[in-house]
Specification:
The structure is a homodimer of 210-residue chains. The first copy, chain A, is 65% helix and 0% strand. With 210 residues, the first copy, chain A, is mainly alpha-helical. The longest helix of chain A is centred in the middle third of the chain and has 23 residues, at 76-98. Chain B binds a DNA duplex (30 and 30 nucleotides) through residues 15, 19, 30-32, 35, 54-56, 64-68, 70-71, 74-76.
Chain lengths: 210, 210
Amino acid sequence: MSHKKTCLCTLSELGTFAPMTDTADRAATGARGRTRRAILSAAATVLGQDRNAPLSAVARAADVGRSTLHRYFPDRDELVSATYEDSLAEIGRAMEEARLHEGPALEAVRRMIAAHIEVGDRVVFAFGDPALAQAHDTGEEADEPEEIVALFARGQEEGALDTNVEPEWFVHVMWALVFTGLDLVHTGRISRHDLVPRILRTFERGALVR
Amino acid sequence: MSHKKTCLCTLSELGTFAPMTDTADRAATGARGRTRRAILSAAATVLGQDRNAPLSAVARAADVGRSTLHRYFPDRDELVSATYEDSLAEIGRAMEEARLHEGPALEAVRRMIAAHIEVGDRVVFAFGDPALAQAHDTGEEADEPEEIVALFARGQEEGALDTNVEPEWFVHVMWALVFTGLDLVHTGRISRHDLVPRILRTFERGALVR
DNA sequence: TTTTTGTGGGACACTGATGTCTCATAAAAA
DNA sequence: TTTTTATGAGACATCAGTGTCCCACAAAAA
């Protein structure tokens, strides 16, 4: 405590860490956590719409100063990374609630699509840009989430889904419908209420009348 | 001809127009037209992938100098406008070849989707960014092309397509599948050969097995 | 109270993209 | 040939976005 002002070296940075919670882990504390979540949420929304939006736009949407944003995420890359990971976590939570392993696969698919719409902003951000998924995850995995592919595969095994295509194709088709649908809602062409049933109908039965 | 060097005023710009073809219309002449088309084609491809790509990237893709690009299209907006109009024209030509008014609507839809894939780069550029269509066209029309909406509507009247949704919905679903499919081809996940049949199958019959 | 923490507002230098110009050089037309 | 046309390369000023600092202020904790 006595070296606070006498120390000229980079130890002054310790002042930034010391106030952290005793558990010494991430900044989940009241004020810090709230600000952090506000920034991550705003980032997903703003950068999901326009990947090249200026950071000032993110700060404005999060209702924080640009200084504060840089204080939490030093540069753009770190913000994007953190937002990506946070989005995956948020989506994962929604998937858990959808209980993908329970009941018939077809009904699980319906719950999953509805869950995707609920966390639409995160989905658009995380899966809307192919370059993102490939940049993170250390490039080892495919960019289609395991559990989703598995669910579609189960649907095929149960004889409910078309087996003429790979389950990965269904993942991308679902994303495409979700992106398009959310965009139509944003631009006010269709109501949010109609979105899920419409996507489900088209996804399952296509455009043909029977 | 005698005022070429003596004139100091902006009439010197006439030197740029005088060499134009006698018909005094657009620059469709050999060299000029070729360069112009090369730039427009490259712009559709590059800007379709990344709307914020630097103009130097467009110039490189078109195999012209950045100076030349600016000579044809003074600023970014003019390039985008010209590329948009050119893309619409190119797409329109593809639609004509598809003969949307002939035969059963369902078969016309199949020809139309195949035609979209053929001019994929233009489709991605022109219809991939909602803001584009809304910025041009003097904002009066809807951004779904008349003829395409009409074709889907005809499909509904003929009893071939689902009448529970507006024909405009089909337009966006088709675009979504085309964008996704082309992206999967670009990233080498599926072969170009399989693309059209796969999109048609999913678009018409959906994911359900029957 | 005093001290610590979180914050916003500027000011600043730096960088990449942009748009304008000039000049030299080929190719095409006279 | 000479003249015109189309082009690429480079220099240049400008601008928006970025990242870094510093300072003052308010809320929370001591």
